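worker-03 picked up job from queue 'complexes'. Input manifest follows; two sequence lines, order preserved.
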Amino acid sequence: MSAILAAAAVAIAAAAAASLAPVRGVFRAALALLFGLGIWSAGYCVALFAAGADPRVRLVKDALLVAAGTGVLLLRPARPAAAQTHESGFTRSTLRWPAYALAVTAVLATAFFAEHTIRHPDGGWDAWAIWNLRARFLARGGAGFRAAFSPELLFWAHRDYPLLLPGVVAQAFLLFRSESPWVPAAVSYSFAASAVALLGAAVRELRGPGWGALAALALLSTPCFVGFASNQQADVPVGAFVLAACSLIALALESAQPRTLLPAGFAASLAAWTKNEGALYLGCLAAGLLVTRWAPPRERVRGLFRFGLGALPLLLLLAWFKLRVAHESDLFGEPTAARLLDPGRWGELLAGLLRRIVYFQDWALWLVAGIALFAISLLRLPRRPAARVVGVAIALALAVTLAVYVIQPHPLLWFFRASIDRVLIQLWPSALLALVLVLASQPAGGTSPNSGAAVDRAGASPSPQASANDR
Amino acid sequence: MTGVPLRTAARAVALLAAVGVAREAYFHLVSEPAWRLFETREPRADERYRAVRAVLPASGRVGYVSDEPVSARPGVLESDEWGTWMYQSAQYALAPIVLVVGDARTDPVLANVKEPERLEAVARAHGLRVERRFEGGRVALLRR
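worker-03 finished. Artifact:
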């Protein structure tokens, strides 16, 4: 009974949240899975802290999610007739092999994932020392679940990290009455598969089917993507949520449907509720929306408002969590300006970064190629607003991350080597999206065949986006 | 120039993807051969602590001592991370108990040692006696 109700809660909440985005097919399915798991987990955490760990609390929470989701689905305004996707604007691709190559790579990646999971059933260090540890505390602790945030736990447990991933895994443990390592592995696989499907579908929507398969293939053949997914770490889910936010921002800008910024903000807030870096990415996306000239300033402020409105519910939860439960971070315990102004630390960091770009084991040739293509495209290709917003946000996020590396108290190179690939894999799906948005031509006559109708409905001026897309 | 032709991009992606997948295949076929999966599989932390978990309280604080130093403060790392790894894996296996590093005032105290022959010395150093050994003396319950 509880499992059926939980499945219904995830499915209906997923459908309701995804219905706010004007997308169809695989794009919508991948968004729905991400939104559904995120809402289910956030609802669990709210219920847990507000009403306790009694199983009946989870039942009531799931019933409320079903009711609220059903209400949204019944009461939502009629969608624009956007069922025919943007593909009509594209030249029909004659390239079939990327789709076949993607299918073969997906099978191989699944085999690699399964093999790694059998070999390391508890995942990588971060999985068992942070995420699954927290899930065990929540699932096993009952009324004493707050022990998960005990100050007597060592800083390695990162009790300040938000709870999206442990919330999903803990509920699955409780539902199945089992702590099988296949539970967190299945959760991790779901997030990774969603990221690949979402990237392929979003690029297909924005640039056509051939490009969609290529983008998905690029992500899936990045060696550390499958590695981090099979290590059950939170970096792949963060990357998936940031990608969802970036995809929806791109769709909003290129098809002149500014209301899509609302679910984009929600997606970014799910990243913030997954890991601390997610809050940084949310802030950077907001800054990108504000400073990039994709529309007149007033439109941009309005867009930022929509984005913030979408993010608000989970940002409130995150603020409460940080203020009341977990406010200490090992990274900012002893920040000093001296570290930030030390040229030796910056030199050490930049040397490490340059070496990492050619780190073949984790990235093969992807990082080198990505950076080279980005540099070339900056000089030679048109500056498309959606790509610029995502690109500015990624650049800003990397700049802030480098500053954090310099001021944090751990030995610099040790900390850098232990974490930089995880930071990069969080941003890599969105960087691939931005790269394709720059490299690939937009379809003739604008991205969206129904953009005019959508703009009318949204009450926004169609002119800024329509004219700015290839500026 | 308004964009890169799809076929040009496809050729580049094909090359890069082939290199990427080959790297992954190398890892799974050569570095960690899949056909030796069950020979080289890591023991789970739960296996090491299963017996001691059965006799520990279900929750609460339990002191933790070891023969290996644990990195307990941000920015201050011990020379090797073996002690930290042992502590974290014990914490993972024994949650929701909170293992308190260096606290010998709880009853009982958990000892987790790399070398079983050092167990008695670890207990004596904290004014405790070994009450019960597990895992060949690598894990033990200590009391006053």
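worker-03 released lock.
Strands of chain B lie at 60-65, 97-101, 109-112, 129-134, 139-143.
The mean pLDDT of chain B is 92.
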